[in-house]
Amino acid sequence: MTSPKDFNDRMLSLGLARVSEAAAHASARLIGRGDEKAADQAAVNAMRDQLNMLDIKGVVVIGEGERDEAPMLFIGEEVGTGQGPAVDIALDPLEGTTLTAKDMPNALTVIAMAPRGTLLHAPDVYMEKLAIGPGYPKDVVSLDMTPSERVRALAKAGGVKDSDITVCILERPRHEDLVAEVRSTGAAIRLITDGDVAGVIHCAEAELTGIDMYMGSGGAPEGVLAASALKCMGGQMWGKLLFRNDDERGRAAKAGITDLDRIYSRDEMVTADVIFAATGVTNGSIVAGVKREPHYLQTETILMRSKTGSVRRMIYRNPIR
Ligand SMILES: O=P(O)(O)OC[C@H]1O[C@](O)(COP(=O)(O)O)[C@@H](O)[C@@H]1O
Ligand SMILES: [Mn+2]
């Protein structure tokens, strides 16, 4: 196992940005074409090619799925040149496949890297999520509270009215009761159709996005990626895996998870320093989408390191030849 001191995050982070940039470039020509699969595949191929150029002994712990259902970037796949630190990789080559296919905001390519053995091996099930930005007392809200208790607690801690709070929630039939309860407090709700990695990140930049809290269930893999981002930006997050049937419980067992009711804090999902990169595919509130000009493609990437809390936004212009 790599000790965190071998994890040269300063060097590796720039390489990570190249990986998410390449995935965004590759899916650019598929924005708004109604073909989610093709857009995802283009991102997967590009991400894998770039990842394999990095001097790491990488293993995908959050990826495109199990080996038998994902030919590439499957969970357990080894990536990188094999020269360098042993690391865990979490990725979502295209977070917001539907957003991309429909040319709707906030589709991202996302990747995180941490020393081997330090990222939660979340199976491909749902996760109940709760996130807030930096600056609040520890555990001011929790998954054990009801949604309205969370709104009241957050408002009180921030010295504002309940009606000044905005909660971000995925618009899904399963969230109808959640939405109704949050509304009963007078809080506002930003409903999003997809993309809860961006949804959670929005909490860390509340002054920019207007979002104070994220609530509701979404993909567990996306939960670990969002926790990685919040660890860099500051902010608290909790997640609880949700299992609907034996197949899903079996996935947990395979991933080595035995306590099925556990609530994971941000730092229990990401136990050491992590680096995180996300590149915009469609325009969003975190980064701009791919800009297609006659002679070049331009992307914007957010690149962060939890060790220093540094947040970079990088513009990359790649000539089309
Ligand atoms: O659509 P569901 O089943 O509610 O799942 C929610 C998940 O799907 C997404 O909206 C989109 O994810 P993908 O584009 O990677 O499929 C995630 O952001 C979210 O966690
Ligand atoms: Mn996703």
Automatic annotation (TrEMBL):
| Pfam families on file | FBPase_glpX
Give one GO term, molecular function aspect: fructose 1,6-bisphosphate 1-phosphatase activity
Q: Which amino acid positions bind Mn(2+) 2, per UniProt?
A: D92, E95, E222
Requisite cofactors:
Mn(2+)
Binding of substrate, residues: E95, G96, T97, Y126, R172, P173, R174, D194, G195, D196, G219
- Say yes or no: keyword Manganese present: yes
Arranged from A to Z, the UniProt key words for this protein are:
Carbohydrate metabolism, Hydrolase, Manganese, Metal-binding
Q: Which Gene Ontology BP terms does the record give?
A: fructose 1,6-bisphosphate metabolic process; gluconeogenesis; glycerol metabolic process
Q: Which domain of life is it from?
A: Bacteria
Q: Which reaction does it catalyse?
A: beta-D-fructose 1,6-bisphosphate + H2O = beta-D-fructose 6-phosphate + phosphate
Where along this sequence does the record place binding of Mn(2+) 1?
D40, E64
Keyword Metal-binding: yes or no? yes
Q: Which GO terms describe its cellular component?
A: cytosol
Tell me its family: Belongs to the FBPase class 2 family.
* UniProt name for this protein: Fructose-1,6-bisphosphatase
**Which source organism?**
Paracoccus versutus (Thiobacillus versutus)
